[in-house]
Amino acid sequence: MSQPTIIPVLSAEEFIKTRHSVRNFKRDVTIPADTLNEILELASAAPSAWNLQHWRFLVIQEQAQKDLVKGIAYGQQQVSDASVVVVVLGDLQANLTGHQIYNQAVDAGELAPEVRDTLLGQIDGAYKFEQVARDEALKNAGLASMQLMLAAKAKGYDSVPMGGYDKDRLIEALKIPARYLPVMIIPIGEAASPGRATGRITLEQSVIKESF
Fold first, then answer.
1. Which InterPro entries does the record match to this protein (predicted)?
2. Domains in the chain, please, with CATH?
3. Which of 90, 142, 177, 198 is deepest in the core (most CB within 10 A)?
4. Is residue 176 exposed (0-12), middle (13-18) or buried (19+ Cβ within 10 Å)?
5. For the chain, what is the largest distance between any 2 Cα atoms, rounded to a whole number of angstroms?
6. Rounded to whole angstroms, how far apart are CA atoms 192 and 32?
7. Closest listed residue to residue 11, CA positions, set 148, 154, 151, 146
8. Contacts (Cβ under 8 Å, ≥6 apart) of 30
């Protein structure tokens, strides 16, 4: 099994500029377990509202499982060929994670109990609204998704974000609990052919200063 070509050290700016979506991966390339863990740890360092870390990474490496997801993704070959397929999930009950995180902070002497209680009251109050939970799950899992792709690039691997799949079939096939919402599928691996840069609108079109 081949390993990716060692890439030169690049700046963060160069990683951002050279990351392009790849849809043609080399088959039978294995990402070493320690490298994959480093990629996932870097992605997990993404920011999140209230530090609730709304994302979960469902990691698929077995070929039969990748082929299963390929069918759910309307036959897109990159799902089958990639080394790893990461299904990024958003947590609709991230407030429960908040209790864990803030209790740990209190136990470590990093947070006063009364501050914890105030924060958890705000969080639990917000999560009474389903739309808030859904919006936060999508928004914050999206932040982790971008960081995942940049982390993969930093380790010499390419990726592609995918929204084209049957969400209900994915949930059923992978036994995804109701707590989690599929946000996107990200195949990661070694490019068989490079991704291409795509056209961008100008800053004059995309940047609005102060107000419309």
1. Nitroreductase (IPR029479), Nitroreductase-like (IPR000415)
2. 23-194 (3.40.109.10)
3. 90
4. middle
5. 55
6. 18
7. 154
8. 1, 3, 83
Which residues does the chain have with pLDDT short of 50?
A: 4-5
Position 9 scores a pLDDT of: 64
Q: Which amino acid is at 21?
A: S
Give residue for tokens 């469902």: 58
Per-residue tokens: 5: 């070509």
The CA dihedral of 2, 17, 54, 130, to the nearest 10 degrees, is: -130
- Sign of the CA dihedral with 4 first, then 5, 9, and 14 last: negative
Q: What's the confidence (pLDDT) of residue 51?
A: 97
Calpha distance 33→69 (Å, rounded): 21
Residue 192, both tokens: 């068989």
In the block, residue with structure tokens 């960081």: 147
1 touches 29 (CB < 8 A): yes
Q: What is the pLDDT of residues 26-51, one digit of tens each?
A: 999 999 999 999 999 999 999 999 99
Residue 109, phi-psi category: left (phi > 0), alpha (psi -120 to 50), beta (remainder): left
